[in-house]
Write a structure and sequence with these properties.
By secondary structure, the protein is of the alpha+beta class. It has 12 helices and 4 strands.
């Protein structure tokens, strides 16, 4: 027998011995753990499920259950395909939490195409796009929070400038909203001054009490336009011919009104 043939026979015997060792019967406790593990696998987290299966397979290679687990792994790998695109679509629809969970799960499998894409996307683009989308949806505080968290990361100069632009926009919008809110509150205060003047003309005196709860009774036609812009009317004091009060806007800003004069 030639040396090559002897080597071939030896390798064949070695492989057969290895296979025979792998195909040993599965102990009852291992089988029980296998079925218990199957109950924990989550179709919404195929990445984590695959890791669990692979870990179980590696720990039990000498038992026939390993072949069954290997087939399970092949089946679960098929569920990974396309999930990166699904996560991107969810983010485009504004479902950022679901999208982030999917991407983080995919990132557990960086050796796959979808997993590699997820890892790279989570480094910057996902959160940058989330901040932009939240701003477009007028969820400015959330947008700012996402942008500020991004600035804590190791970003390139170009990326950092992009994030700073989002913060510039949210800051400008915040100022504009504050000005609009103040204007609305001032308008409600002026309506309140007119109401107080009409009450004095009609009744010959100012009302004994004045609060948001009194508005509907005192001015059933226009009370709502005042109440919609104020969170409270406080510190009301009145005599027959004088009054003072503090009107508080929805943003917490306080306006003092004394005998028809608006003070800030």
């Amino acid at each position: 027998m030639s040396t090559r043939v002897r080597v071939g026979v030896f390798m064949t015997a070695f492989v057969m011995a290895s296979c025979a060792q792998k195909q040993g019967p599965t102990p009852a406790d291992v089988s029980a753990r296998y079925h218990a593990m199957l109950d924990t696998l989550d179709v919404e987290q195929p990445g984590a499920s695959l890791l669990a299966l692979e870990g179980f397979r590696d720990a039990n290679q000498n038992y026939t259950v390993a072949d069954t687990v290997e087939q399970d792994i092949l089946d679960w790998r098929g569920t990974i395909q396309g999930r990166y695109h699904q996560a991107r679509e969810l983010a485009r629809a504004g479902e950022f939490d679901r999208a982030e969970r999917m991407l983080n799960d995919l990132a557990l499998l960086p050796q796959t195409e979808d997993g590699t894409s997820a890892v790279q996307h989570l480094e910057f683009e996902f959160y940058f796009e989330k901040a932009k989308s939240l701003m477009i949806r007028q969820r400015f505080e959330e947008s700012e929070a996402v942008a500020r968290e991004l600035l804590t990361r190791d970003l390139s100069r170009f990326q950092r400038d992009q994030v700073e632009q989002i913060l510039d926009h949210t800051a400008n919008i915040g100022v504009a909203e504050g000005m609009v809110g103040k204007s609305r509150t001032e308008g409600a205060c002026r309506q309140l001054i007119v109401l107080m003047a009409n009450l004095y003309v009609n009744e010959g005196q100012y009302p004994a009490s004045m609060s948001l709860g009194d508005l509907e009774r005192l001015d059933p036609y226009y009370w709502r336009s005042i109440a919609n812009e104020l969170s409270a009317i406080e510190d009301y004091h009145a005599t027959q011919d004088t009054y003072s009060l503090v009107a508080i806007g929805k943003n917490g800003e306080r306006f003092r009104i004394v005998n028809g004069t608006l003070e800030n």
